[in-house]
Each structure stands twice: as C-alpha cells, then as structure tokens.
Amino acid sequence: MATETPPPPVTFPTRYWHALEDGRLQCDVCPRECRLHEGQRGLCYVRGREGDEVVLYTYGRSSGFCIDPIEKKPLNHFLPGSSVLSFGTAGCNLACKFCQNWDMSKSREMDTLADAAMPERLAETAVELGCRSIAFTYNDPVIFLEYAIDVAKACRPLGVKTVAVSAGYINDEPRREFFPYMDAANIDLKAFSESFYHKVCGGHLQNILETLEYIAHETDVWLELTTLLIPGENDSDNELDAMTRWVVEKLGADVPMHFTAFHPDWKMQDNLPTPPETLTRARQIAMGNGVRYAYTGNVHDVTGGSTFCPGCHEMVIERDWYQLGFWGVTPAGCCHACGANIAGVFEAEPGSWGPRRVPVRLLR
Question: Helix H segments across 313-353?
Fold first, then answer.
C-alpha cells in the first residue's frame, strides 16, 4: 500500500548565532548556546550548522495538527470554551526525564514531521475550522521561533490569536522578539529548585524565572503557569510554599497556577504517579499564599478545576475535565455575584467546543 512521502527537510536561515574564534558557530537562542562544527545540530536537533550559518530544519513542517479545547493547554482564563488548532514540530532544548510528549520532543527523525503548512495556510485553516487561536505546543516553540513568529504574523489580520506552550528556556534577545507576537502563554515552571532543573531537566531555573518576569511585566501576553508534581522530586511543602510566594511577589496574584498529576513516562517510569491529594495540597498552599486562581489537572476534580471569584468565593466558571458547566462571568469580565473583576481574556459568551479532540490533516 502506497504511503505519502514527507517533504525533504527545508533549511530556513536564522539570525540568533555568532561565529567563534575557533571556527565554530554558537547558537544564541537558548542558554545551552550550542557550539557547532559544520553539519552538527544543537541539542534541540532542529537548529544546526549548514555552511557558514545556523539554520532551522522544521520551518513549515509539523508532527501533526489537532483541534483541542483551549483548557487543555492548559489555559483557563483565555477565551474559555473555545477551540484551538494545536501543533508542534520535533525536538526540544530541555532534556526532561519525565517528558509526556517524548515521542515528538525527543525525536531525531525528520520523518516524524508528516504534515506541512506554511504560515498563511495555517492561519486560513484556523479560520476555516472555527478555531479562535493557534497553539504552538507538544514540543517547545522557542526552538522553532522563526516559524512560530511568521504564523503569528499571518494570524493577526485574520483575528486568530496565538498561544505559546513553553518551558521558557530562551535567551533575552530572542525572548524579546518571540513573546510579543504571542497573545497567551502557558509556561512550565517545572520546579522551584536549581537541583531539579539541573538533574531532571538539564537546564537552569534562573533563566525560567527571568522569562516569567519579562512576560508578566514587559508584554501584554496573558500568562498562566503549570507545574507537573512528581512525588518526592518537586512536591514538598517547602518548595511549593517558596514557589507560590515567589509567583505572587514577582508576577502577581492574578497569574493562574495549574498543578498537574505526573504519570510514569519516558525515563521516569519507576516513579509513582501523583496522588490527587498532593494536587489539592499544592492548590491550598498556593491560595494560602495569595494566588487567586489555583487549579488541579490530569485528575477528575470539579472543585480544583473550576474558577472561583477571589472576592466573594462564588463559583464563576464550572469545569468538569474540559467541559464547561455553569458560567458566571459577566460580559464585562466580572463576577455575577459581587461584581469583582475576574482576571483573564473573556468574550461576552463562552465557547462551546467542549472536550473534543479532533486530528486534522492539512492539504498542501
């Protein structure tokens, strides 16, 4: 039976690199600063040296497209109930041992990239499918930032929003180019200790914190955070207390935090899954430290998944997994009961996409 042959890799020129005195080229997109001889690729695998420049190999190519509920990113305060056209490429610039999307993020095979779409076509497809936004997800968009930025540029005239689901591991100059093109971001704050980032992720915490402060204070991007809690690794009361205090002090009390359950995967299959009570404990610590919107994820927990007014504590958005129920946000973005402001990006009516996940194949 005949199968469709994926298009050959296309090299796209990049500009975040410089030449070293020893003849190598240093990629300057992220703190790894990979130093490349001819023909070498960085750890992310999608940026590499071809001749006298560093190029991107995944421009216009994807590991697949899917329509998701926006709550799956997870974003609970950005166009609730709407559908989002999601896609990723291959590779990643972190080396998380618990990666839930390792088949794509750790891929070293360009044949993984079976779908192709140039930015204009992708934006038009989102409109045709009724998606309010496009999400760069499954692997980290900072490694294909040129492609993501061009998609965002194509989306804006059509009224389609763009969402970055990222670990935020990116240097300052490319950070300042990339995020202003995004309308919303969910950043994985994987832990609040340098030892965890170094040992489990192969990265550094400080850079992530700098990215978060930049987004919160120097852009108009709607920001939410996710922390996957791994028993015995990043779920202690002391670490959760320090993390949530830092979020309130440095980012603000209105930044939603999602505490999600770990399921054994990739190189941490011997670790235990996260008990639901751990997520509830994390949510309580966060709210006790002033976080106004704290959520549990990857578990069935209507209370932990729903939004409550920070003023009167009445429910304003009911969620059962990714299904919206009661809606108590007024068209002005306020609580139906007391009139307090509910932080977020809301439309007059919630979306009605529900929990569906629909794979999409784009025609070239």
Answer: none
